[in-house]
Amino acid sequence: MTFYHGTDEESWEAIQKEGVLWGRRYVQEDNEIREVSRCTYLAVDEREAMLNGDIVLKVEYEPTDGNDNYVEGCWQLRVYVPISLSNIIRIR
Q1: Residue-range domain boundaries for the chain
Q2: Whose CA is closest to 12, among 59, 51, 55, 48?
Q3: 46: which DSSP letter?
Q4: In this predicted structure, what is the pLDDT of residue 89?
Q5: Helix/strand/coil for 11
């Protein structure tokens, strides 16, 4: 399936350096920001991805049980596994 991921230049460079698309999720507690998990948000529509950064990545990914929270018809999904750069094309 085709999904989209919006990001910025700094994050795109970090993605390329790490060799996978696998975001970091943070929370703020008691004025301290900490990482709580690694996951990537993917949008089903390119326009939605554009709201999250100037760079838009086209991502080929097959949702699987246990690795994401995909729901048919939802505007996004959260993926808890790294996605290979070979499945990604920068389109913006």
Answers
A1: 2-90
A2: 55
A3: H
A4: 97
A5: helix
